[in-house]
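Give me structure tokens for this 267-residue protein.
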Amino acid sequence: MIRWSLVGVLVLVCLPGIVVALPRATKLIRERLSGMPGSRKVPPLAVLVAGQSIQALLVTTALTVGGVVASRHTSLGAPFFEALLSGQSAMSEFQSQVLPALALGIGGALLFLLAYYLIFRPRLDVDTLQAMDSVRKRAGLWGRVLYGGIVEETMCRFGCMNLLVWAAYAVAGRSLWGLWLGIVLSGLLFGLGHIPTYRQAGCAGTAWFYATEIVLNLWAACIFGWLFATHGLLAAMIAHAAFHVVWYPFDRLFAEKVPAESKKVAT
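Here you go.
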């Protein structure tokens, strides 16, 4: 039986992130439609906003329902939100999750930044760097914290990872490797899911671009996935949000210093 109250709470928690992301999403759609060949008329803004809102809510709700169903078989859940619904001590759940989430979130972000700025970013061409910086700038800090930290974790960890771990357990029984298979596969999907937006923004489809998106997003997803598995959904949300808070000032600084020596066409 589906616990609809938990579905409702998680979707409700995602609403601010969905709303914050709407301007960027609708702008990308308008740019895509206006750039298509022929005299295709771009729909009114109200139509685009309504369509994007409905799509985001449907996808979020569907993956949340999938996560609620799968969690009965995987024991991967959202104990903080479940405590809120049951009237139990949500504060104790928060206290047990916040410290490991901040420790792994901030520590993982620092390693992520070292890899990005020392290994991957210097090997990306100027056009790709400018496009990537532009996408993140348009998202803004609140968009990255609320959409990335809450909406993406609800969809990718609570929904997608839960379903993949359930499938792995069904095939080979409950095991650590089955858990990690779900973490890694959902992380790969997480990384691949970022590629269309960046390509639409003008990133060149080079080997280093794909490596950047897949490797670094997989690293982040392994941290969030492990926290989700060992502590709960809130821990993954906090860690993801912390990633963006730590990255944001570096992003602003380096976006103004796109290296002129960057390769024009990376291979």
